[in-house]
Amino acid sequence: xxxxxxxxxxEKIEKSxxxxxxxxxxxxxxxxxxxxxxxxxxxEYVKDNFVSxxxxxxxxxxxxxxxxxxxHIMLTIRPLQENGKWQHKTxxxxxxxxxxxxxxxxxxxxxxxxAEGWEKQYQYLVGERKVYMAPSEAxxxxxxxxxxxxxxxxxxRQNPISQRWNSDEQLLIWREKWATVTNRHLAxxxxxxxxxxxxxxxx
Length: 203
Description:
Layout: H1 2-13, E1 22-28, H2 35-49, E2 57-62, E3 70-76, E4 90-91, E5 94-98, E6 101-105, H3 107-115, E7 119-120, E8 122-126, E9 129-133, H4 135-141, E10 144-145, E11 157-158, H5 160-165, H6 168-186
Antiparallel strand pairs: 1-3, 2-3, 4-11, 5-6, 5-7, 8-9, 8-10
């Protein structure tokens, strides 16, 4: 039930038809570890590296007794806030002007920027053309606003947390963390001399 509720919530917040609903990570689990230790290893890794960062994780551990135990981890794309609400993946960024300079601000940032003299830009009718300018400038010229939509960047600003999760650097960190925690679990069994290296395969 909890699994169904989670992904129903994800599908509800992702309204675009081509939205990515989840990030999948597959982990090769050392076959030398006992089954209960394999489960503990995966849970510890997921909790410390994904859940603690604000992701929700759906874990499935497979072991067909063919020497290839592994885990499939489905992770949410958006960070989850402490109040249980999903954060944005991208946020609208308004291109504002002040003293001839143009800068982008999110809605929250604009509240502060507005007090510092920054203005949003709108399209005004200048003859037969539509020209973006600040309302204060348009009022001086007596121009009529063409529409109600302020000038903004094409794709908005990506959530910095999501941006970090999608980076190659973060992927390398996760690989290294998996090697570290796995080797710590392996070291609990003196009879097991196998170790893994995140730069290589099982050695």
